[in-house]
Amino acid sequence: MTARTANPVRQSALPVAAKRLSRRTLLRGLSAAVPLPWLEAMQATQTAFAGTGDGSFPNRMAILYVPNGQHMPDWTPAAAGAEFELTPILAPLAKVREKLLVLSGLVSNQARNRGAGHAPALATFLTGVPPHKTDGPEIRGGTSADQVAAARIGHRTRLASLEIGAERGPLSGNCDTGYNCVYNSALSWRSATQPMPKEINPRLVFERLFGGGDPAAVARDRRRGSLLDFVREDARGLEQKLAAADRRKLDEYLSSVRDVETRMERAASLPPVAVPDMPVPAGMPADYAEHVRLMCDLMVLAFQADVTRIVTFTVANEASNRAYPMLDVAEGHHDLSHHGNDPEKQAKISRINTFHASQLAYLLERLDGLTEGDGTLLDHAMVAYGSGIHDGNKHNYENLPVLLAGGGCGSIAPGRHLRYPDETPLANLWRSMLARMEADTDRLGDATGLLPGLDRA
Asked: Model pTM?
């Protein structure tokens, strides 16, 4: 695979001040603090980052979760190796095919040990630890892989980790055969008894990434205008120190921040859509696809500016019964997942799965469209995507639908379909990603070691 090459800026052409530009430079205005993306002017002061081959760029990890399994005949490629063809569900990923690893054969054995159900699927996905069955407050699971990374390298960024979602979920009560509802909605766990709440409001995520932390000042800024209105003067002063390529990159980055702001304001001002005559999950955004894509854009900004290197995104909660009227799917997702081998229901499940894959494609294409040195942001990231259930009709946990995108700063050789022996623990994938973040651990749930073959063509 040939890395995409940025237009290099010769160091001799850079202003003297630009050569000393720190990676931690912030544009400030009142409560706003906007970190910068990587610029060529930072080469002179770049320090070593975790998990890289040459120490030039940080390695990032993101895990996206989708519920209720997949329609596996439309997910799994027929051929293994580099010659695999994209299946109907994976077809939206065509533009980034060469940066994908489709991983077959992985199992969540600890979920299986807790019997059929949706709660164990999500609760064990990143922990490899079976959840304690209770619908009361005595919840107990395990530390998730993202929080292992956050504990090891989180001090290197403004935010140790970021937990986001696109669907509300109750954090108490009985949601699934005697399991507390938190198991259906919490992907990230700081400890066995401390689930990490996810933020589903794009505005609050935006303010967490770029606000100064003073709620009164943030509210005052919001009344007065855009966050970028307060950093523009600072940006103008910085631009005078940059070469043309860096000025263009800075302008593109600030335009992306502005675009996210504008879309959030527009979404907030639009009247609610008419509610169809069908069950609708509480708190569903007026436009679910736009909600998911806003969250994806915020992930991109967080990685681009190195605000955090660790993100979990619960696209929808496990057992989500969201309807997808924009796909002409009036039934709830969870209800459909119990398809009983009905071809019409399976076709609708496949449509929902393909929709989710198209949102992943949006994220990956955005990451791959941003140059960083001689590669792209996707080349310097690892994005895992999948579900903790194989087939929602069977509630089985072997041969999970999982893929890994990105180059991991040269530590991953993508563009292949890898078949692993049956019963290979899913937690081996997380350990392998942690190793590439310089956060490896000897113990993670039921992991038995590292996942082989990720770096071998």
From this structure: 0.79
